[in-house]
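Kindly inspect the following:
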Amino acid sequence: MHSEFFCLSRTSISRYFRLLLAITVGLATAFTTGCGGSSSQTTLTGNTSVTVLASSTANDQLSSFMVTINSLTLTSKSGATVNVVATPVSEEFIHLNGHVEPIATVSIPQGDYVSASATFDFSDPVCHGQAPGMDMTDSLGGGPSETINLPQPIMVTGEAMGLVLNLQVNEYPETCPTPTEFVFAPPVTATFNLAPLTIAAQPTNSANGLAVGLEGTIASLGSGGSGINVDALVDNQGPVWQVSFNGSTLFQGVSGASQLTVGLPVNMDLAIQPDGSFLATRVEAISTDVTTLTLATGPLMNVVNSPPVGFFTDASQEGYLPWGGTGSGFGPVNFANAQFQISGQFENLASLPFAASFNAANMVAGQNLTITTQATVVEGGPVYVPATTMTLVPQTINGTVSAISTTGNFTTYTVTLAPYDLFPQFAVQPGQTTLLTSPNTVVVYADSNTQMLNSTPISVGGVFRFYGLVFNDNGTLRMDCAQVNDGAAA
């Protein structure tokens, strides 16, 4: 084991800069709910169930962006105010690149809301880079509470609707980071767009009310197997989701609702219902062992085989171990006896024109993983923290399309990543085996089930975001793609 591996840390020369935040409101001239009817034809009486959803639009320069929202307040045309986010809630936005996650639900009076304000207590954007002999991590955010005005109106009407708080991350200057930028890093500029979301009667994607890949632990069980309450996998003050089941809910890792227990780590897909409630379309038990459980998810930064240790960074975590701290990752884990598995979120793995596998031999830095452990103490080398399960989960990449082709029932897009992406940055490091032949390229596979949410057709030279499972296929990165969005500036 090379000593360079243990230079991994949130560098002591990290400097905090005031984060510049702004919120703008996306206007909808004729917003309609899933129940139908335009705002101009709707009588604005009674209340509407409003679900606030976190999302982001970002390139791949930042690997994490944790924000604590103290409040989000709307002011109506008559001057009345309502709290849409009334209690502090924390969320990590980068893993929601192109996707949504509910953070609050509130019933508010219908009407035209002409302004808004928000306060933020904490922000922690994080980026990575290579320096001689070490992997570097820098925290760029911080600063006191910010109050943000939203001067443009939002129409609240219908039985239920969504409001998407979408973090827009600008391009970080040059390569992020370099040793110089660690000392003189400019502030990250971020804008939150707040826009209404139409909830479909049967949501199919993040643009109409389906939130996929939500992770957390079961906090309590509903009576008679009717549902669960889940604590979101966020370091602190994360949202809590009250989830119901029906006869179509798919259970993975357990035979049904009767096998769910308090403390069980789960990965879920939730459909917002026309009344604003959450229906689980899929519930996957990541692990069935809840004894002294610690659950964490985040990008893999370094892998060595002797001893078999992986270093994870910028992870969200909860559970028994006081592993790292907010945004600092959860350090090295020993995967010698871990059970390797692939998220059950995708059902088409067997039909892919390549062998979609994930194991200790083909695991590479840059992949997004969820891990569990039953360790009761944090140990250093050569033991480290033993992982119980290592699960490959979906992630978003942002890149330029260099070629388009077809393979069987799949359209393939060859996507070139920017140099600051985690895959090219960490493919070659002291102490780890080089497994990738072209770490700056991902071949993306899309089929008829892929949600195409891009506003312009995919073409060579265009920048797009692709969401899916990334596999190492004998040195080539390949993605089983579930969703495509417009790209973010590279």
